[in-house]
Design brief:
0% strand; mainly alpha; disordered N terminus; globular; single chain; 19 helices; Growth Hormone, Chain: A
């Protein structure tokens, strides 16, 4: 029996995984729509690449802020569901604000709420799922990221097609409705983690641990150990550099397609869809493989592929070949997203799982926030092709960092 099927059959209650994964998809639906709309907003408002990059950097500043403070709050309060709900509401507000945008100020405000929506989601959702699916964490988190990939994949082409008939403002307002529906569904139907664990009775040891309250003293002790964990710090660096590559491609691909290849909104949406479609299928396999052969090997293979593909990408002038290569880049980069999340949970305990996720995504936001700004300056002065050479160099750096990560982890020895 295939490892993915075997691991999936061991999951006893798929309802919480399904709801959280759909919610994750809704947050990335918001982000995907923003990326499709951004080149056309840039055109209408008369902005340059640097200003567009600054808008994306504002997103990462907001992401940095929310992940920095949310981890400790989540670990102490354990209010996983309420925080997920608040993230979805932030996404609704972002799209509504975007629908009324006629200035840089409103565009920046929308970017802030999108940062809260997308990055704020991970701090409550990953520990929540890790507690429930402790024995199949890699697969569960890979399914969770499939939800993100679905949102990234479905949102852009829908937005692109609507923009063939509607303005980008009307498109943004209309596409806020599914996010609101998802927020209401989540707050009404998602159950607390401890209640689910009691029902499915995964293991007595896990139940005993989950039922113990987390005191501030125990939390601070665990946080000190987490910060002093060299492997965790190395993983944060790896995640940050990997995220620089992944998100750099997502920000500059639509700009490249519109301003260099003169692509239509529909084709831009299809290109962003193609990035995610491979990850939707490969992600669960990558998560399951990481449970079997170890996270480090999977990450190394994926980063090697993405580096080689990015190196040759700017040499293709045919837009359809270009999109095909980009889809393979996305497949390799996005497939390891759940693997890195699972690796994070391997290096922490239940007491500090929220803070571990917070550390990871804070590092990602801090490093990734530089890429849109620097890439925009490079694009304005030397062309967007040179921006993609920059992303190739960053991907190579991530590969080198991954190579020097410890070879032994809690999954495979």
């Amino acid at each position: 029996m295939h490892p993915v099927i075997k691991n999936f059959r061991e999951i006893k209650d798929v309802k919480p995984l399904s709801i959280v994964s759909l919610g994750h998809g809704a947050t990335h639906w918001v982000n995907g729509i923003f990326l499709v709309l951004l080149p056309f907003i840039v055109k209408d408002l008369g902005l340059n690449y640097t200003t567009a990059g600054i808008m994306a950097s504002i997103f990462y500043i907001a992401a940095f802020s929310i992940t920095l403070i949310s981890g400790p709050i989540i670990d102490i309060t354990r209010e996983y569901i309420k925080f997920q709900f608040m993230c979805l509401i932030s996404g609704v507000l972002a799209l509504i604000i975007l629908g009324f945008t006629d200035s840089i100020f409103l565009l920046a405000t929308a970017a802030i709420f999108i940062g809260f929506c997308v990055s704020g989601w991970h701090t409550p959702s990953i520990p929540y799922l890790s507690k429930i699916y402790h024995n199949n964490r890699g697969l569960a988190l890979s399914i969770h990221t499939v939800g993100a990939s679905l949102g990234d994949a479905v949102g852009p082409p829908i937005a692109g097609l609507l923009m063939l008939f509607l303005t980008w403002k009307t498109t943004s307002l209309l596409l806020s409705i599914p996010v609101m529906i998802m927020a209401i569904y989540l707050i009404l139907r998602l159950e607390p983690a401890d209640k689910i664990i009691d029902r499915i009775k995964s293991t007595k040891a896990l139940e005993a641990d989950n039922n113990k309250p987390t005191t501030r003293v125990k939390y601070i002790e665990g946080l000190k150990a987490l910060i002093g964990n060299r492997s965790m710090l190395q993983l944060c660096l790896l995640a940050g550099v990997w995220s620089m590559t992944q998100n750099g491609v997502m920000v500059f691909l639509p700009l490249y397609l519109v301003f260099v290849m003169d692509a239509s909104p529909a084709l831009v949406g299809f290109a962003l869809f193609s990035i995610q479609i491979g990850a939707i299928f490969v992600g669960p396999m990558a998560g399951s493989w990481s449970d079997q052969i170890g996270t480090r090997k999977v990450v190394l293979y994926a980063l090697a592929v993405s580096t080689l593909l990015l190196l040759f990408l700017p040499f293709f002038n045919n837009i359809y070949i270009f999109i095909g290569i980009v889809s393979l880049v996305g497949c390799s980069l996005y497939s390891i997203r759940p693997v890195i999340h699972s690796w994070t949970m391997d290096l922490t305990t239940d007491k500090t799982s929220g803070s571990a996720v917070s550390m990871l995504f804070t590092a990602q936001a801090a490093l990734t926030g530089m890429v849109p700004f620097i890439g925009g300056i490079i694009g304005d002065n030397y062309g967007l092709k040179v921006t993609f050479y920059m992303l190739t160099l960053i991907s190579l750096t991530a590969l080198i960092v991954a190579f020097f990560m410890p070879k032994i982890n809690s999954k495979v020895r």
